[in-house]
Amino acid sequence: MSHPPAPEELSVYQNAEARFEVAARKLGLEEGLYRYLKHPSKEITLYIPVGMDNGQLEVFTGYRVLHSTVRGPGKGGIRFAPDVSLDEVRALATWMTWKCAVVNIPFGGAKGGIICDPRKMSKNELERLTRRYTAELADWLGPEKDVPAPDVGTNEQTMAWIMDTYSMHIHQATTAVVTGKPIELGGSRGRKEATGRGVLMCCNKALTKLGMRIAGCRVVVQGFGNVGSMAAKLMHEAGYKIVGLSDIAGGLYNEKGFDVPQVIDWVYIQKKPLQDFPGGGTKMSARDVLFQPCDIVIPAAIENQITEKNAHQVQARILCEGANGPTTSKADAIIDGKGIFIVPDILGNAGGVTVSYFEWVQDRQGFFWRESEVNERLQDVMDGSFDAVVRYAEMHKVNNRIAAYMLAIDRVAIALRLRGIYA
Length: 423
What we know:
By secondary structure, the protein is α/β, with parallel strands linked by helices.
């Protein structure tokens, strides 16, 4: 979930816009294309009536933003959270366009959200909310139009409800309308681990680039949802030393390192608070864990965590962003000044959308791949994309974040010039 930015910081959309402007200017993007790519294609606001279990009728506000379909159908998650806003959804849709372009998959960007607190709703209420939201959007969704996926507050079950509702509306089973589905409904093997695995792959590449070794490499992970827990688990298995962990309630730092599978069992199987993990080390806030001594810091929680106000406290050599927008644009210069090697979010967390693309391809073929094949293809995409971003950074003498934006914007702009403007 996101939180309002500090008064001196930009909103999540303003951060996305600020980086776009820097990259577009360095590319020398034509004024017309600049205006075209700056704005979303569609923004839909929905007011969704839902009968609650207590017999009352509630009306929820929902959004779906389609930023671009220049390179293919829209792609992006749906989040259920109390603090969802149109500004946030617009920013996330924009980031999805650049993320898909960075890893060179044939999607544009989209995002959706509903203002609700899924923790306070029953399964039946969530199902009714999801199905009504889907029904209202049915004309805009589809394998060739806009393909949702899970995000904060949603999961495989949510995607199954969306797939079923859409299929009922068009009178045929259409598994490719969403990704992140259960395996039994056309989901892809390796999808659950994909974003965390992509983070691991980027960290491996960054170490190689900087001449560092995995053995003894200290890692801090903020966030213990799907992305953070999977990244921590896979990196632990690869030989990294996970010294800091946090979830929404707080963080732990232990220079001796954590046995991550035991932490996952504690949190997910025993359902106990992360901060109460036995022998967990020093307790601190979820944000403060980002500023502890380490070699790699991975913000994998929410937006606007590393800001102009606290960026000087980062003590890592590598910043690999597992979340969307964890670092504000005003913090970029501080991170650069400290000589920190950054793997920006539109590259660092792109493993998820890459395997979502693989899922969409498998659904459309009706032919499914082994998990080893999914992971091998993901490795190819992430390695190639990392190398392309670093080359762009060195060629244009910019940091990796601006290089990633420049590479992505250039790819979308090339497609747009080739297609032309229909009028």
